[in-house]
Amino acid sequence: MTETVDVVLIGGGIMSATLGAFLHELQPDWKITAIERLSDVAEESSNAFNNAGTGHSALCELNYTPQAADGSIDISKAISINEQFQLSRQFWSSLVERGVLSDPDTFINTTPHMTFVRGEKNVDFLKRRYELLKQQTLFADMEYSEDSRVINTWAPLLMQERLKADEPFAATRVSGGTDVDFGSLTRQLFAQLSADGVEVRTDTEVRNLKRQKDGTWQVKYRRTIGRAPGRINARFVFVGAGGWALKLLQKSGIPEIKGYGCFPIGGQWLQTTDPKVVAAHHAKVYSKATVGAPPMSVPHLDTRVVDGEASVLFGPFATFSPKFLKNGSMWDLVTQVRFSNIFSMLKVAFTNFDLIRYLFSELAKNHHRKVDDLRELMPSARDEDWKLLQAGQRAQVMHQGQLKFGTEVVAHSDGSIAGLLGASPGASTAVPIMLTLLKTCFPDQFASWEPKIRELIPTYGQSLNDQPALALQTLTGTAQDLKIAL
């Protein structure tokens, strides 16, 4: 007889870990099983070097403050992203207090967030962006400067060997930004779930999802070692399998996945562990994206702290593979094609020539040309100090003829199965994304869960940006709990 559990989490990344942590807190009597095809959790997109590690809060990312044709700047998305990240911080803070997470410096560290631009138009844009954001409660600590001496104190590598006669430049800075090791965070969450009785099956690949007459979902899997097949029934299934979420949701047959497609984009970093370079840089510095580049390819020069070791990364540089996961299949791009999505994907292909040109230009770059790109931010960079590091694989969402940015929850109308598609800001906003999923898929239970949710996230349902006193109290509290700067 096939075993039946309450919840199956497919994929061992930050999304499944976050949802599992929520469900275990909200409904500790439920039986939960997590399934991961690799030999350990957090080895795909959640692995520290497979993502930027930025605590995405719109402090430095220009794509969250788009400029309209008339020159106006929309800051609404920046405020929304920052609000969402504050929910994640509060949740992590509560889990630290409960002993679920270890010392905060094992997964989060204070790293100033900066934006650096060059050229009159970009300087004008950055200054107006700063003036708008500075008025907002969540961005009140933002600083702005066009003075090389000031910027040199913020991030010396930006100014070393930069000619005074160069085009104008400017920077913004928020000292209370963060660098997050989502791999460590994910492993800690799963370790605690496992200790509390949640079964975590690694080396197990889900092959199919089929609805049963009793309303449960039969999850068919195969062990990657020995190839032994198996099956388990679940009352609720979450597909948090990165790029493979599309493939599995297609196999489930739910109508909500029709029309969706994915375009895979890989990435590489330039990395240095040179002590002099690492010691001279303590910031995440984002710049302006190349024309046609997707938001996740905005160039940035980052301090990274992984397993207690610091390095500096620059990138990402786009690569191409038909795989939807770093450890995916070469057939992923082809096998996703359905009659319901092929015309939508063709429309995206014919209306995004800038993206195609960008990918070709990235693929043509050798090591020297990649370091040349780095020299736009860090003029003193030397080819021999930097090595290439393969980053993660992203499956960019396509739907109804549009290339979609961000993350999307796709859920069946009865709430019995849901999955997550998309990329940035992704991991940083895992907590609000999973709260939305819980409200969508468990409407009958959610009202009874809300008191517990507010224990874990005191400001849930409120806007910090509209309440300066509450914002200060909340930010101060979480900063103290997570041992990060305000």
UniProtKB/TrEMBL annotation:
Q: Which domain of life is it from?
A: Bacteria
- Which cofactors does this protein require? FAD
Q: Which InterPro entries match?
A: FAD/NAD-bd_sf (IPR036188), MQO (IPR006231)
Q: Which keywords describe this protein according to UniProt?
A: FAD, Flavoprotein, Oxidoreductase, Tricarboxylic acid cycle
One annotated GO molecular function is:
(S)-2-hydroxyglutarate dehydrogenase activity
- Record field: catalytic activity: (S)-malate + a quinone = a quinol + oxaloacetate
List the pathway annotation.
Carbohydrate metabolism; tricarboxylic acid cycle; oxaloacetate from (S)-malate (quinone route): step 1/1
Gene3D superfamilies, sorted: D-Amino Acid Oxidase, subunit A, domain 2 (3.30.9.10), FAD/NAD(P)-binding domain (3.50.50.60)
Q: Which Pfam families does this one have?
A: Mqo (PF06039)
Which GO biological process entries does UniProt record here? Answer: tricarboxylic acid cycle
Its EC number is 1.1.5.4
EC class of this enzyme?
Answer: oxidoreductase
UniProt record similarity statement: Belongs to the MQO family.
Name of the protein in its database record: Probable malate:quinone oxidoreductase
Query: What organism does the record attribute this protein to?
Result: Microbacterium protaetiae
